[in-house]
Automatic annotation (TrEMBL):
One of its GO terms (molecular function) is phosphatase activity. NCBIfam families: HAD-SF-IIIA, YqeG_hyp_ppase. This is Uncharacterized protein. GO terms for cellular component: cytoplasm. Signal peptide: none annotated. InterPro entries: HAD-like_sf, HAD-SF_hydro_IIIA, HAD_sf, PGP_Pase, PGPP1/Gep4.
């Protein structure tokens, strides 16, 4: 199973050229176990969007990566099942249309709603607004790709959290290649040009420090 060419990401590159902060995440963690979901909820965030492949599952698998189950369940407990969804480019996207068989299989297997957006991140905001019925700035986007997940979240004012991929085993060759290039670009922007993530109204430097301290203590 592979993903087809992502023309939506190419189209959105113009936004990155104009505003390079759009591919910089607000927070970067090893994996979802390092995210303090209670702090995020207490801060006022209303919902969570997860990428699927290499964020919650191994590439193109339909089971939650076992070490992450407890953290995902904690997220569901805090935010509520209706406020936690998957938005993926391999399921529920244009690759999966018109019957969305992959999305339906994943919903049954994982027990989490998969948004059906008939396009690809960083496009697909309409499905998000229709589901959550709130301003996107109240939402959190979590994923392992800078030019899809992080760009998507930042374009619409979400809090963005980058997680390192679970494994390269079984991943699409071109995805691995692009992922490495994305990483190099982001590190260059952050370390040499000192570019930060866009401002988020519910996020502050103090909040980021609290989350970073939490991660160190785990």
């Amino acid at each position: 199973m592979v993903q087809s060419f992502n023309i939506e990401a190419i189209k959105c590159l113009k936004h990155v050229f104009l505003n390079r902060s759009l591919i910089i995440p607000h927070l970067e963690v090893k994996d979802i176990r390092n995210i303090n979901f209670q702090s995020l909820y207490d801060r006022g965030f209303k919902g969570v969007l997860f990428d699927k492949d290499n964020t919650l599952t191994e590439p193109y698998k339909n089971e939650i990566y076992n070490p992450y189950k407890e953290s995902l369940n904690k997220c569901l407990e805090i935010f509520g099942n209706d406020n936690v969804v998957i938005i993926s480019n391999s399921a529920g996207s244009s690759d999966d249309a018109p019957n969305f068989e992959k999305a339906n299989q994943i919903e049954k297997s994982l027990g989490i709603k998969v948004l059906k957006h008939n396009t690809k991140k960083p496009d697909g905001i309409d499905s998000v607004k229709n589901h959550f019925k709130t301003d996107p700035k109240n939402l959190i986007m979590i994923g392992d790709r800078y030019l899809t997940d992080i760009l998507f979240g930042n374009l619409y004012g979400m809090l963005t959290i980058y997680t390192h991929p679970i494994t390269s085993v079984g991943d699409n060759f071109f995805v691995k290649l692009i992922r490495n290039k994305e990483r190099q670009i982001v590190l260059c922007l952050k370390n040499y040009f000192k570019i930060d993530a866009p401002k988020n109204l519910l996020c502050s430097s103090e909040f980021e420090k609290i989350n970073n301290d939490d991660q160190k203590n785990k």
